[in-house]
Design brief:
Belongs to the LysR transcriptional regulatory family. By secondary structure, this protein is an alpha/beta fold. The chain has twelve helices and 13 strands.
């Protein structure tokens, strides 16, 4: 069993400061140093490289961080599962990014709850980075995200492949006609805040086409997808988003696609949980349930 010194280690990994770690754990800074020295002696390797006064994990430190993070998270979830051993119903707590949480999950969860009304579900909606932090801290069982992240650090399953598209008001000249990237940079761009999955993917798309956000004459950042779509529908600018997030507006004609020459983007929505978790089989069972409900919902639309 991992002891309190491993908690000190994980806290230092998170904040990269001996002083901040001491403050967060309400211990002295020398105590933090002693805990790290004990672990380095225990495992026989340096866990941190403090060259040039910067705190950086060594290769062995990275391995211990991943192992300890999973153990502490599993222990937290194990304690919670003990209280539910007498219940026959499934319960889980997960996180989803905005496009997924607002436009994909409601139908999926509705199908599951109709089949099993006693199912207990808690969903948090936030950007990719915040959800990864909460997953690492053991606050969530798993997350479903659209953003970019280091897949090698987690166990992942592709949940779906979704089209990433540019849209504008049907009144604008770019609606439903072929244009080049050099033309749309003259538009006002309305997009999500830094840290959101949609923003990261859009920046990645721009880079692939040898552009950046700075190429646009005017840029507005909005943290709410509904507000972005309304502003775009009113002709105030263009945006890039997942087709699933604009499905209703595309169908009712309040938004139109922009056909950018040579542009075609399919992106993954990923089901993510901590690597080598004790609850691997449980998470895979939940993944299959969510995936089945997703497939059933897609079939019902045809």
């Amino acid at each position: 069993m991992l002891d309190f010194r491993h908690e000190t280690f994980l806290t230092l990994c998170s904040c990269n400061s001996f002083t901040k770690t001491a403050e967060l754990l309400h211990i002295s800074q020398p105590a933090v140093s002693q805990h790290i020295k004990y672990l380095e002696a225990l495992y026989g390797y340096k866990l941190f490289d403090t060259t040039y006064k910067k705190i950086q994990l060594t290769e062995q430190g990275e391995l211990l961080r991943a192992f300890a993070m999973t153990i502490f998270s599993d222990l937290k979830h194990f304690k919670e599962s003990l209280s539910a051993t007498t219940a026959d119903t499934l319960h889980f707590s997960f996180g989803a990014t905005l496009s997924i949480g607002e436009y994909l999950m409601p139908k999926i969860l509705s199908r599951l709850l109709n089949k099993d009304p006693e199912m207990s579900v808690h969903m948090s909606v936030a950007n990719t980075q915040l959800l990864l932090e909460r997953l690492n801290q053991g606050d969530l069982d798993f997350i479903v995200v659209e953003g970019l992240f280091d897949k090698s650090a987690y166990d992942t399953k592709v949940f779906s492949l979704e089209r990433f598209i540019p849209v504008c008001s049907p009144r604008l000249e770019w609606a439903n006609r072929e244009v080049g990237f050099h033309e749309i940079v003259e538009c006002r761009l309305i997009l999500r805040e830094s840290g959101s999955g949609t923003r990261e993917i859009f920046e990645n798309v721009l880079q692939k086409n040898n552009y950046s956000i700075h190429a646009f004459e005017k840029v507005i950042e909005i943290g709410n997808m509904a507000a972005i779509k309304k502003m775009v529908a009113n002709g105030l600018g263009i945006t890039f988003l997942f087709e699933v997030a604009a499905k209703r507006e595309l169908e009712d004609g309040s938004l139109s696609r922009i056909n950018i020459r040579g542009f075609s983007e399919l992106r993954e929505f990923n089901f993510v949980f901590l690597k080598n978790s004790f609850f691997y089989e449980r998470y895979m069972k939940i993944y299959e349930l969510l995936k089945q409900a997703f497939n059933e919902d897609n079939k019902s639309e045809f």
